[in-house]
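Supplementary notes for students who missed Thursday's class. We covered one full example, reproduced here. Read the sequence, then the structure, then the short commentary at the end.
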Amino acid sequence: MSAAPVVVLIGPMGVGKSTVGQLLAERLGVGYRDTDDDIVAEQGRTIAEIFVDEGEPVFRAIEKQAVQRALTEHDGVLALGGGSILDDDTRALLAGQRVVYLSMDVEEAVKRTGLNAARPLLAVNPRKQWRELMEARRHLYEGVATAVVTTDGRTPEEVTQAALDALELKDA
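Structure (token representation):
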């Protein structure tokens, strides 16, 4: 029998999936894994470099494999890259999982990420591109989410508690 994560975190870049994921893992007494970290370790280069060198379709194929692997190998808290939910197969694999969509508005995104050039999909007009990305993705995030937790104006600890409450999970 394969493992399954106790919680899967999804949401846009910069929403705090890594920070909240690590806090959730601590609170639940389980391990933490991030598919973006898996990709960087496996590929030996940053996600931005993969985008620049190979293009988005190649990156998405690599990402899809990383997500599929992590969903069957990891039994703790799993954070997925912001665009991973674009893939139909990935969304199908998330059905039946405890998925928390961490959401934020564009102003919060600007504050958190500075919408910087290290984010390859936001290189030209960051605010406009972030809004367009979210318009294209929001329904996908919501479609696979068991719970939606807004992060606007909240500390990572508050978001972590809100996620635990939403899923009715108890601390370890």
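Commentary. The chain has a mean pLDDT of 86. The first helix runs from residue 17 to 28. If anything here is unclear, bring it to office hours.
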